[in-house]
Amino acid sequence: MRPIILGICSAFFFAFTFVLNQAMELSGGSWIWSASLRYIFMVPFLLCIVLSRKNLLPLLRVMRERPGPWLLWSFVGFGLFYAPLCFASAYSPGWLIAGTWQITIISGALLAPLFFENVQTKEGLERQRGKISVRGLLMSMIILLGIILMQLEHTKHISMANLWLGVIPIIIASFAYPLGNRKMMEVSEGRLDAYQRVLGMTLASMPFWFLLSIYGFMTVGAPTKMQSFQSLLVALFSGVIATVLFFKATDMVRGNMQKLASVEATQSMEVLFALAGELLFLSLPFPSLLSWFGIFIVIIGMILHSYVSHKNEGSSRKRTVSA
Predict the structure, then answer these.
(1) Residue 176 scores a pLDDT above 80
(2) What residues have CB less than 8 Å from 236, skipping those under 6 apart?
(3) Contact between 200 and 180 (Cβ < 8 Å)
(4) Domain of 271, in residue numbers
(5) Exposed e or buried b per residue across 81-96, where buried means at least 16 C-beta atoms within 10 angstroms of its C-beta
(6) Rounded to the nearest 10 degrees, what angle do helices 67-74 and 160-188 cross at?
(7) What region does 221 belong to: left with phi over 0, alpha with psi -120 to 50, or beta?
(8) Please, how many CA atoms are within 13 Å of residue 140, restricted to the half-sphere of its CB?
(9) 170 near 97, Cβ under 8 Å?
(10) Is residue 92 within 8 Å of residue 300, measured between CB atoms?
(11) Domain count for the chain
(12) Pfam families annotated for this entry (predicted)?
């Protein structure tokens, strides 16, 4: 029960991203600062964690070996992920972005053929190109149906152009996040833990965030004190607390595929937490019955997808090491 509680708590803190980004947008803050300040503020927090684990020097040695891939895939995994997500907040409420963001499950599945994995055969381990899980993809279609239902209600209140400005950036982010993170796992070759990898990618993405900050100064001026404080909260709550809680929950059940699936399914609660936060603190209109039905479908799809994925993994035991 404790891993489930930790998973729900992590979803709660992850939801702060969507609520606070929407709050910054409604108060006139630019998405440029919402995006760049989060990662700039994450650096000292992550440094403290990695230093406390005495893992900073090994990280720096690995980064010096291949600085080019670190810069490229950190830009993809963090820059092309979070900047579009913040941009979308100008056109969609946070709860809708949180729901639409679940499309990353589909995007991640479609990226499988781009990577190789070690597969157990009669002759031993063989390196084969990843395959798209048909059963997992079918479960993902349930999530997509829920997202469409939520967006259908949203189309009644905005133009089609604004709808696409809110959806297309999230689709870009949904591919960039798993692509960048998987490529970085290839580059690090299993020599770094999750905290080191996140810190390394944050540091390697700093050139992009600094350039974006300069662009922000030139176009919209400096961020307000309130936006800076809210970005600090996003960095702390989502970038640090939520991540640590989720890693802790998955570590506790890593040997049990069914329990691991249950923990991962708790992340669908982000939609409900983001919605509750916006209703309580931002006075957003209450979603319609159709939107509620879409939210319910997304949550059910997340749970089914998680169980199907880990059931296949547990029964076959063929995929032993993922690239």
Answers:
(1) yes
(2) 41, 45
(3) no
(4) 2-322
(5) bbbbbbbbbbbbbbbb
(6) 150
(7) left
(8) 17
(9) yes
(10) no
(11) 1
(12) EmrE
List the structure tokens of 47. Answer: 């440094």
- Copy the structure tokens of residue 112: 């499988």
All residues at 6 or more sequence positions from 163 whose CB lies less than 8 Å from its CB, including other chains: 91, 151, 154, 155
Residues in contact with 134: Cβ distance below 8 Å, sequence separation at least 6, in sequence order: none
Outline where 205-256 has alpha helix (H). 206-219, 225-234, 243-252
Supply the pTM of this predicted model.
Answer: 0.83
- Residue 157 has φ and ψ, to the nearest 5°, of -110, -10
For 256, the token pair is 């049990």
Nearest residue to 236 via CA among 86, 75, 94, 39: 39
pLDDT at 240 over 90: no
> Per mean pLDDT, which range of 161-170, 216-225, 284-293, 313-322 is the poorest?
313-322
Strands of 116-121's sheet in order across: 124-129, 116-121, 319-322
**Contact yes or no for 147/99 (Cβ under 8 A):** yes
Which one-letter amino acid corresponds to residue 210? F
Q: Which residue has the tokens 């939801």?
A: 15
Reported residue count of the chain is 323
- Residue 320's pLDDT is 36
pLDDT band at 233 (very low <50, low <70, confident <90, very high): very high
Q: What confidence tens digit (pLDDT) does each residue in 268-278 have?
A: 788 889 888 98
